[in-house]
Amino acid sequence: MARSRQVPQGFAQRAKTILLAAEGLSNTIIAQQLGLSKHTIGKWRWRFLRQGLIGLYGEPRPGGPRSISDEKVATLLRKTMKTKPQNGTHWTVRALATETKLSKSTVHRIWRAFGLQPHRQKHFKLSTNPFFVEKVRDIVGLYLNPPDKALVLCVDEKNQVQALDRTQPVLPMGLGYVEGVAHDYVRHGATTLFAALDIATGQVLTQCKSRHRHQEFLSFLNHIEANVPQKLEVHLVVDNYATHKHEKVRRWLAARPRYHVHYTPTYSSWLNQVEIWFNIITQRAIRRGTFRSVKDLIAKIENFVTHYNAKSKPFMWTATADSILDKLQRLLKRIHGT
Fold it and tell me: Between the CA of residue 4 and those of 20, 36, 113, what are the distances in Å?
């Protein structure tokens, strides 16, 4: 212990004290060699005789008395949660420190102790659909227990995918610095990306269209029809966008009994697994891309889809309908009365 570099220095000194005492040295000589007082040497020798090695660890110290009363802490917490500054939307450490006449380190310490983060927000959106529970159970049931001899496709479109070209050349990444891009760009047009995700294989069927109307959606449905074996039933998970409920779309679906449409509840696009894939292609191929034309953008999207499908894997959906509804119930309890 005396030679260890992983124990506190004070503990190592106490171990050296006991070793020197075991050699027969007096308290005065040990104190001179270690730079301590005779009283300190005697205290640790006495504790070692009484308690052994445990006695060398010492006892926890209570520390100094609190300088901030419970009333001040409660006042600071109430002001943080119940009020706002006159010139802002939320309190900052320095603004509240000035208001309460406390130091900013004290305010920060209290906020951290009680888990307060006024500078952060957590977004949510509650569905207003009267059949929310039934639709959640229906769609989650498709994910967790898909029907036999059927194909479950999550269908949606990502509109306004812009072909952006930077005004200056991109500086490549190097050792010690990241890739550099100009902060401004030139727009060369936009396209709409239609996608259908097969939840069993993870493969994606896509088409890019110039507009976002029921005509384009019907064209994409025909594209699905041409690529899905006729012997399979098809279950489509789509949102409540007006294009998906157009009269001509309904007639197209009615003429094909093997198609079954499952609409997600309002404000619940997170139930559609294709949204996960849209985030993947946005992060990997679109957001940081440079495109000289819409044609160039479409070509790079198709190239990404080709490589993605070659190594695709299905998303592992684990949330049950009950777990989703329980989470919603906890949220409702938190916001009750606000």
Answer: 17, 20, 35
